[in-house]
Amino acid sequence: MTDTDDDPDTDSETATVAESYTEMTELLLPNDTNNLGRALGGAVLHWMDICGAIAGMRFASRQVVTASMDHVDFIAPIEMGEVVVVEGYVFNAGRTSLDVKVEVRAENPRTGDSRRTTTSYFTFVALDEAGRPTEVPAVECPTAEETALRERAIEGRREQLREVVDRYDV
């Protein structure tokens, strides 16, 4: 976390998108596959939740818990033996909550081919030592790259929510 002001009377902590960036890799093995040799959706969601929580903890320097997960579409299968890459970063923060974009892609370790398999947006709540919601830093984007990542995540979440509303005519 970065303190933007040396004045102890102000509580204006910030953290950057880059400080929260987390990447995990898994090798898809038989215990996490269905009878077709493809990733179980529950295993993928589990990895996404862990990656998002780590990104949130890095950002807030506190324990976080999952509050919600947006709609998830599994757009491409992950085959047994492929490397699963799960990436996440905080792109927005409220008073006690953090929004994290989590994206999954599959890589063929023999050919190097890679494809996106799913993306979702999680909300986590930071907890203090007593397990109560506690304030989190504001999001800071000191580079153009971080600003672009944040803007893409915000727009991606809006677009995903629009598609869900349109699909279900809510």
Automatic annotation (TrEMBL):
<feature type="domain" description="HotDog ACOT-type">
    <location>
        <begin position="18"/>
        <end position="130"/>
    </location>
</feature>
<protein>
    <submittedName>
        <fullName>Acyl-CoA thioesterase</fullName>
        <ecNumber>3.1.2.20</ecNumber>
    </submittedName>
</protein>
<dbReference type="Pfam" id="PF03061">
    <property type="entry name" value="4HBT"/>
</dbReference>
<dbReference type="InterPro" id="IPR029069">
    <property type="entry name" value="HotDog_dom_sf"/>
</dbReference>
<dbReference type="InterPro" id="IPR006683">
    <property type="entry name" value="Thioestr_dom"/>
</dbReference>
<keyword id="KW-0378">Hydrolase</keyword>
<dbReference type="InterPro" id="IPR033120">
    <property type="entry name" value="HOTDOG_ACOT"/>
</dbReference>
<dbReference type="InterPro" id="IPR040170">
    <property type="entry name" value="Cytosol_ACT"/>
</dbReference>
<dbReference type="GO" id="GO:0047617">
    <property type="term" value="F:fatty acyl-CoA hydrolase activity"/>
</dbReference>
